[in-house]
Amino acid sequence: MLSYVILGANDMKASDRFYTALLEPLGYEKLDDNGGLAFTLAEVADRYNGPGAIYIKPPFDGKPATVGNGSMIAFRTRSHGIVRQLHAAAVAAGGTDEGQPGFRAEYSKTFFVAYLRDPLGNKIALFCSESPQA
Predict the structure, then answer these.
(1) What angle separates helix 80-92 from helix 12-23, to the nearest 10 degrees?
(2) Residue 60: partners with Cβ closer than 8 Å, 6 or more residues away
């Protein structure tokens, strides 16, 4: 079972702005975490160890954070509207568009997704599986 995710950051202010805009509307609570940030779900019993905990912090080894080529984190939402809203908010908060919200028939007829990159370049997906009529 996946427990938590740590993403490196070189500019904590930019990452804070981006991830706050992206994760707080999904129900995550933001906490300071020893020079970094922790986004956790309050209803999870062991919220700091997941599932679903997201940590944003400078790398422990002191070297610059880099992007994992081919890596992506996906967040499920409840509706097409939330995918659109969060994509716009995250781009406005310093993210970069990697794919406008819409259906991707190559995955399924109900897969509605938007892609973006955080300030460092990590790829993020926001999706839901509502039918096209929703």
Answers:
(1) 160
(2) none
What is d(CA 113, CA 81) in angstroms, rounded to the nearest whole number? 11
Q: What is the mean pLDDT of the chain?
A: 92
The dihedrals phi and psi of 120, each to the nearest 5 degrees, come to -85, -25
Here the tokens at position 93 are 């908060």
3 vs 45: CA distance, rounded Å: 12
9-18: per-residue pLDDT in tens? 999 999 999 9
Query: What is the spatial distance between Cα 39 and Cα 33, in angstroms, rounded to a whole number?
Result: 9
Distance CA 23, CA 53 (A): 11
Beta bridge partners of 105: none
pLDDT in tens, 30-72: 998 888 999 999 888 888 887 889 999 999 899 999 998 888 9
